[in-house]
Write a structure and sequence with these properties.
Distance between the termini: 58 Å
Radius of gyration: 20 Å
Strand order of the largest sheet: 4-3-6-7
Order of helices and strands: HHEEEEEEE
Strand content: 25-35%
Largest sheet: 4 strands, antiparallel
Shape: elongated
Number of helices: 2
Oligomer: single chain
Length: 142
C-alpha cells in the first residue's frame, strides 16, 4: 500500500503540488532512513591509457549497483604517489570529490612508473564522511 501511495505522491508532485500539500498527506517521502556511515566505497582503477587512471567506484555493500547510497553527495578520492600504501589520509593528497563515477586522474610524464595509492570514502550531504574503503593501488603507465 505504501508503495502505491508513493507513486500517487510522485504524480501529484510532478503535477506541481506544493511541499506543504505533500507533507499534509502524511505519506512517507522515502522507504527508510538514510544509511549509516558504515558503508564504504569500493573502487577499481583502469590503467589502459598512458599517464591516466580511470577510477570507478560503487558501494561496497551493493557492488552490482552503480548508485550512491542514500544521503551521499559523492566519493572523496585521496592519492599517495610512490612508496608503500598509506596508513591514513594524512599521508595522502586530496584529489577530488567525485559525484559521478568514473573519475579520470591525469598524470605528468615524470610520474610514469610510480605507484598511485588511492583511498576513497563517502562524503554525505550533511558534510559528514564515512570510513575509508580498501586502498586501491595501480602503476602509472608511461
Amino acid at each position: 500500500v505504501e508503495a502505491q501511495l508513493r507513486i500517487l505522491r510522485n504524480i501529484a508532485k510532478a503535477a506541481g503540488a506544493s511541499a506543504a500539500a505533500m507533507a499534509a498527506t502524511g505519506i512517507p517521502t522515502s522507504s527508510g532512513a538514510a544509511p549509516s556511515n558504515a558503508t564504504v566505497p569500493a573502487g577499481s582503477v583502469n590503467t589502459s591509457e598512458r599517464l591516466r587512471h580511470t577510477i570507478e567506484w560503487t558501494d561496497a555493500a551493493a557492488l552490482d549497483n552503480k548508485r550512491k547510497p542514500r544521503g551521499v553527495m559523492g566519493a572523496e578520492i585521496w592519492v599517495k604517489l610512490d612508496g608503500p600504501p598509506p596508513t591514513d589520509e594524512k599521508e595522502c593528497t586530496f584529489l577530488t570529490l567525485d559525484a559521478y563515477t568514473p573519475y579520470l586522474a591525469v598524470y605528468e610524464g615524470a610520474d610514469a612508473g610510480k605507484m598511485a595509492h588511492y583511498l576513497l570514502r563517502w562524503r554525505m550531504k550533511d558534510g559528514s564522511t564515512s570510513a575509508f574503503g580498501e586502498t586501491i593501488s595501480a602503476t602509472i603507465t608511461g
